[in-house]
Amino acid sequence: MWSNEVNLSTYLLFEGNCKQAMELYKSIFGGELGISLVGETPMKDMFPEFMHSRVLNARLQSAVVDISASDWLRPSEQYVQGNNMSLYISGGSFEETGRIFSALSNNAVITDALVEQSFGLYGALKDEFGVCWKFHATKN
């Protein structure tokens, strides 16, 4: 039923200090840290200029942790403690990711429709129990 590619990890949201937080975590846990800023991506035109220095995506992978994160990128919604953490489904095929998204969509609030972006398939939702989920798949 599941490929060996699907992973479940943690996705953190920060209030403008994602880069600093992820650099701290790297100094503690070691590993490889990749960071993409909004202004360095094809998606920059979707955001106001003041948000171009914010982190669109960061990922720290080490023998100890696998943490993905970004800055809060929803200017029309308020960042509050509690909506700053999600379960993160990544690594599966478009089809497998779509199946999981669809299964969790029942009675859910879909915050980002599952659609193909410049970096792959992406979507997000809050399930019927209030748990936030993010989904990402890249083309194989």
UniProtKB/TrEMBL annotation:
Annotated PhnB-like domain residues: 8-134
Name of the protein this chain belongs to: VOC family protein
Species for this entry: Cellvibrio zantedeschiae
